Amino acid sequence: MKPFSSRLQVVDALRGFAIVSIMLLHNIEHFDFYFTPANLPAWMPAIDNAIWDTLFFLFGGKSYAIFALLFGLTFFIQDDNQTRKGKDFRGRFAWRLLLLLGFGTINSAFYQGDILTIYAILGFVLIPVARLSDKAVFWVATVLMVQPYMWVTFIHAVQNPEMVVANPVSWSYFGRMGDYVTGSSLGALLWGNLTNGKLAVFHWTWESGRVFQTSALFMFGMLAGRRGLFVPGENQKRFWIRAFMVAVVAFTVLFYLKTNLKGWIDIKAIRRPLVEIVTTWANMGFMMVLVSGFVLLFQSAIGHRMLRVFSPIGRMSLSNYMIQSIIGSFVYYGFGLGLYEYTGSTYCLAIGLVLAVLQGIFSTWWMSRHKYGPLEGWWHKATWI
After folding, report:
1. Which of 73, 104, 142, 249 measures 20 to 30 Å from 340, CA to CA?
2. What value, to the nearest 5°, has the Cα angle with vertex 245 and ends 244 and 246?
3. Within-domain flag for 13
4. pLDDT (tens digit per residue) in 210-251
5. What is the domain count for the chain?
6. What is each CA distance from 302 to 187, 297, 298, in whole angstroms?
7. Is the pLDDT of residue 73 over 70?
């Protein structure tokens, strides 16, 4: 395989697509503060519900999965480039993850649902597997994707069907958000997000199976880089066509199971881990539908013209992700405009689309004048300090 001497445009565009879809989800969630406003027009709640269900069906659990897949791919590209120069990138990558943890901590102060801190911590799993064979990495990633902890929980529940199932620990922390999100104090918000908020997210990441899922996707992304799956070519195109067809079938079956499990299994202790497992797999199936469909469409002339608009956004994804957190918290939280009180999904989607267009305009302008995004430039310089 040829070295990655130039940027893969499809990867930039796909990462930009993920950033935009994440922004739309964050907006309809009021950036993690779920609140249904009163006094909406009688016709609006039905539209709000339709928009909510549609966006979560399309992007919920999938956009972050795309991001995780590309995180692993980026690690491979950087590691491969350094290996070709006779250098070992793994130590530098560990330092790079610590820098990402710093960015994530800043981002978490404004938006508790930040994923940068999670990626910075879980990214260390790539270091011990970086020199393993493709087959070994594939099986490690597959075991993680199977969700072993959930299966242990399921087996325990089958053996003890009368056990009392407590609510997830994260719920108690999420329930305290209103104490600081709705207030007018920026200081209280920042402290609340960095303490209570991060505990909520860390617990939720474990309880939802995201720890295993994200680690697995990092490794699958690294394997995709090794196999050159995002490099344009006929073999790669055939792979993505097969992946698209398999993913459609897999998602259809898994979505059917996910939808009906609650009606099939009455015992809550048994049902809960199974629902988490099947939900994770269903999300991965649809994520592959999105990724393979995007890559195939990007290779067509019309699709390339349509989708390349996401490339500048993707090239400065770190900057855009943090910018949307700061702006979003100001728009919806009490210290800023406090629009959480007045906006349902319809209004929030409109706001999200406007912000996405503005980010696209800014990204296009910035990348026409600079090699890196604002924060990407700092991250790059600090990586090689």
Report:
1. 104
2. 95
3. yes
4. 999 999 999 999 999 999 999 989 999 999 999 999 999 999
5. 1
6. 48, 8, 8
7. yes
